[in-house]
Amino acid sequence: MSEIGRLAGVSQSTVSRVLSGTTPVAPDKQAAVLEVIEQHNFRPNIVAQGLVHGRTFQIGVLTRHLGSPFFGEILRGIAKAMEETNYHPVFSLGSENPSEDRKALDVLLARRVDGIILQAPQAVNKMNDEFIRGLAEELPLIVIGRQIPGLEKQCVIVKNFEGAYLATSHIIAKGHRAIAHITGTLWIEDAAQRREGYTQALRDAGLEVIPELIIEGDFTEVSGAQAVDVLLSRREAFPFSAIFAGNDQMAIGARLALYHRRIGVPEDISLVGFDDLLGTQYMIPPLTTIRQPIFYMGLMATQSLLALLSGEPFHLPAFPLELVIRQSVGLR
Amino acid sequence: MSEIGRLAGVSQSTVSRVLSGTTPVAPDKQAAVLEVIEQHNFRPNIVAQGLVHGRTFQIGVLTRHLGSPFFGEILRGIAKAMEETNYHPVFSLGSENPSEDRKALDVLLARRVDGIILQAPQAVNKMNDEFIRGLAEELPLIVIGRQIPGLEKQCVIVKNFEGAYLATSHIIAKGHRAIAHITGTLWIEDAAQRREGYTQALRDAGLEVIPELIIEGDFTEVSGAQAVDVLLSRREAFPFSAIFAGNDQMAIGARLALYHRRIGVPEDISLVGFDDLLGTQYMIPPLTTIRQPIFYMGLMATQSLLALLSGEPFHLPAFPLELVIRQSVGLR
DNA sequence: TTGTAGGCGTTATCAT
DNA sequence: ATGATAACGCCTACAA
Fold it and tell me: Across the interface, which of A72, A88, A110 has its CB nearest the CB of B46?
């Protein structure tokens, strides 16, 4: 920057001022400086700026699984919210291994990110509620997909229980008596809560909860397909006529497996998903699912974080769920 | 850091030395310092370290679409390669809008990333070959999915033409005469090259290339399904008995659409994909596809970049493709 | 072995 | 309006 100043015949501070625009600068010098900057296509070093300001303008996002459409949507929301700001997201991939998870967080912290978005952090070990509460005192923090007692206002959660209850009740209302459920990764709260909603709906309808009809998947399409295989292999002993999949990805996998076995949906088996993923209804119509505003969850989480950052008040809205029936489902 | 030194009764430099381990420090002082560090759980500021060293230990990754399984695999490779290093990836999302694409790159540059991985950059406007060559002179750079003349050694590409040729020839060898093709986003080289391989294989077999049988998709499942709908709607005028999908995601979409119309695969229509995506063969068996070592492409690209960074010699291996036939395809 | 001091690229506060 | 100058947090000669 001083080099630029030298070439333009001004001081380094003037260059800084031209760039920041905080203080008026004589038009001729202004022009001279911009000229030199242009020639050398100089860019101010954000890192050094950060040193001065005490911030990095980076938001850490601790996540898992970048290849999923679900996460992709959340990310779109996060990126969208930061679009016109100076902030930039930095992703760190957690894993199912708790220590790796913690290490990923440490990297973010060492980089002095200005705030953190925790995506469905594991509730074990060093990542327990207590730890996260402590973390929240050190820096602005938003948690997606997990409710931390005492930190409710900074947690983005979804009415998983209600959604699953709604979905299951809908299936029951259509006359089904034996309903299977493919869960997501159970240590992720969303999955556990959806399972609860499912079992509660069964109980409230006076139906029996059959453990053999509940298969744990991992939110991926493959696990959905595999779960169906397991269910079908037991079908003699544990018959069922409908499946409630813990998310749309598993619903897609399940649908493929059913198609493959030439089992009609919904004629032979009814299928309900969760998320209302982009395009799902096009790929596997007809589809009944629970709509979840994923994109907005990412967006709002980020906006709240930015508000936290600037000390502004904010409130995370409640994210509603909705039963969506695409085309005529014909659940029987 | 000086605060830590004060509390431990040593100078700030000694604290630095304890942390870096570059210079011996008296055991007692060492202990005292570590003690204080522990108490205040102090972490050195990587940003400030970067200022001194002139590097940020960040690798910029310009990408598009974080929600795709294909990109997820590349990313796994990138992350894996950086795992035991001090480097950390920073992602910036490009878009189909060239100016956005450029802006995403600028953010990375302003953050003074030490190196850049360009993921299938658009070959237009400011991102032309000339520009990228210039960029490569400024900082270590690896390009995935596009061949830049004069920069071949830093480009990770795949034998797309050969793979598509192989796939199409295989289908022809099974007796098909009218083969449809669903392409990926055509401004991405991979997609264009695969289309070339497809048309060349047809020509070499003396078959006619029918434009109406070539549908442009965008690598997503939905586009695969939609393409099939279009193809089927024209089937009277332009019949076909096989489909070569430009990637596995579109193959999945196509398969779903076919299943939905109760069109058997491979009895009625044969389907071949490209990528050998994780789990695909499980979800839609039997599947014939071209195997592409996606994970290793990300891994090797990153290792090469790190080598570039440290001035070590390196060579990007050729990434082979392979025709994979899962189970008995029964292409007729 | 340890402390002092200078510098990395900016911004902000002073004078001028 | 503009130029010095002091931070920001850390590393590293250099000196002791």
Answer: A110
R_g (Cα) of chain B, nearest Å: 25
| Confidence bin at A328 (pLDDT 50/70/90) | very low
Question: In the numeric block, which tokens belong to residue B167?
Answer: 């796939």
CA-based diameter of chain B, in Å?
87
B54-91 as b/e: b if 16+ CB within 10 A: ebbbbbbbbbbbbbbbbbbbbbbbbbebbeeeebbbbb
Residues in A 101-140 with any Cβ partner in B closer than 8 A = 106-107, 109-112
CB < 8 Å to A225, chain B: 282-283
Starting at the edge strand found earlier in the chain, the sheet holding A115-119 runs A88-93, A58-63, A115-119, A141-144, A155-156
Confidence check: pLDDT of A331 > 70: no
Chain C: positions less than 7 Å from a protein CB are 1-5, 7-13
Per-residue model confidence (pLDDT) at position B280:
84
Direct distance between the N- and C-terminal alpha carbons of chain B, in angstroms, rounded to an integer: 72
Angstrom distance (rounded) from CA A204 to CA B278: 40
The single-letter code of the amino acid at B166 is L
Tell me the backbone φ, ψ of residue A15, rounded to 5 degrees: -60, -45
What distance in Å separates the CA atoms of residue B82 and residue A145, rounded to the nearest whole number?
28
Share above pLDDT 90 across residues of chain B, in percent, rounded to a whole number: 55
* The pLDDT of residue A266: 86
d(CA A188, CA A121): 8
Quote the pLDDT of residue A326: 67
pLDDT at A296 over 90: yes
Query: Which single residue is written with the structure tokens 């076919």?
Result: B258
Residue B313 and residue B307 in contact, taking contact as beta carbons nearer than 8 Å: yes
Interstrand relation of B288-291 and B322-325 (parallel, antiparallel or unpaired): antiparallel
Mean pLDDT in residue range A114-118: 95
Q: Hey, what are A234's tokens?
A: 């037991």
Residue B327 has pLDDT above 60, yes or no: no
Asked whether the whole model's pTM tops 0.85, one would answer yes
Q: Which amino acid is at A284?
A: I
